[in-house]
Design brief:
CATH topology of the largest domain: MetI-like fold
Helix content: over 70%
CATH class of the largest domain: Mainly Alpha
Distance between the termini: 38 Å
Number of domains: 2
Strand content: under 5%
Number of helices: 12
Length: 287
């Protein structure tokens, strides 16, 4: 009996999580895949016909929004790496006893609703807002200068929205680095730049990899920032999918676009992992 319990114990532990994933991930995914191959409308109902043309038509109609979403996601991830690494580095190596406080301050704005924070950015970037209006009054900026409704505003909102998801993984990776390794590099007459390039950054790659995974995917599929901070010229695929699901009830096209975006994101992630050398990253992470 004890042997049976030991054998079943791991499966029983996995069972709750497995059921959750089955009900709220696998089943919806299969349902959405079925919808993407159906034809019909809300009035007459949808019928599964294996209509692959939904994918071809959706990509042809919204390829601009699709490419724009991937580009915005990539730019956001790149900016986040540049911004987050110095912050995480300083906290990890110079934060001292206040590391937890600094991390809490980074997370503090995210206790507020995602939508409310994005609306706050809209109020900040509007022409007569607290940021641009004084600069225009002072003559520093021209009267026709505008940020809201541009790609800059959307990307700025995305960077702000996902900043902690890049800082925290990089911080965890840097925190695991033995300071004696960095000291050894300096003892071997490595300059600070060489020490960072040859020692610190390679050891922090697992955090960078995890941060990109946690930012590129949601940034590319986001629609709140492009809806509130952008314009018709900055429409992302997430907006199109949201509109087709909730407004026009074009479920097959919306599902086809969702799967297309997901496939491209997965392909991009695998290509990114391969370029970094996933095995090398995992070996570093295991140390």
């Amino acid at each position: 009996m004890d042997r049976v319990k030991r054998t079943l114990a791991p499966y029983l532990l996995v069972l709750p999580g497995g059921l959750w994933l089955l009900l709220f991930f696998a089943v919806p995914m299969v349902t959405m895949l079925s919808l993407s191959l159906q034809e019909g409308d809300v009035v007459n109902g949808f019928v599964f016909t294996g209509h692959w043309q939904n994918y071809v038509e959706s990509i042809a109609d919204y390829q601009t929004q699709l490419i724009r979403s991937l580009v915005y996601g990539a730019i956001t991830s790149g900016i986040l790496i540049v911004m987050s690494f110095p912050v995480a580095y300083w906290i990890a190596f110079y934060g001292g006893k206040r590391k937890a406080t600094y991390l809490f301050l980074i997370l503090l704005p995210f206790f507020v609703s995602f939508v409310l924070r994005t609306i706050s950015w809209r109020m900040l970037l509007t022409d007569d807002g607290v940021l641009l209006h004084p600069l225009k009054e002072a003559g520093i900026l021209p009267d026709d200068f505008q940020v809201l409704g541009s790609a800059t505003a959307v990307i700025a909102g995305l960077v702000y929205s996902f900043l902690p998801f890049m800082v925290l993984p990089i911080y965890v990776a840097l925190e695991r680095i033995d300071p004696r390794v960095v000291e050894a590099a300096r003892d071997l007459y490595a300059s600070p730049i060489t020490s960072f390039r040859k020692v610190v950054f390679p050891l922090a790659l697992p955090g960078v990899f995890a941060g990109v995974l946690m930012t590129f995917v949601p940034a590319s599929s986001d629609y709140v920032n492009s809806e509130l901070l952008g314009s018709s010229e900055t429409t992302m695929l997430g907006q199109v999918i949201q509109s087709k699901f909730l407004s026009s009830s074009d479920y097959p096209s919306a599902s086809a676009l969702s799967f297309t975006l997901m496939a491209l994101l997965l392909a991009g992630i695998f290509a990114y992992a391969r370029s970094l050398g996933t095995e090398d990253v995992m070996k570093v992470a295991a140390r």
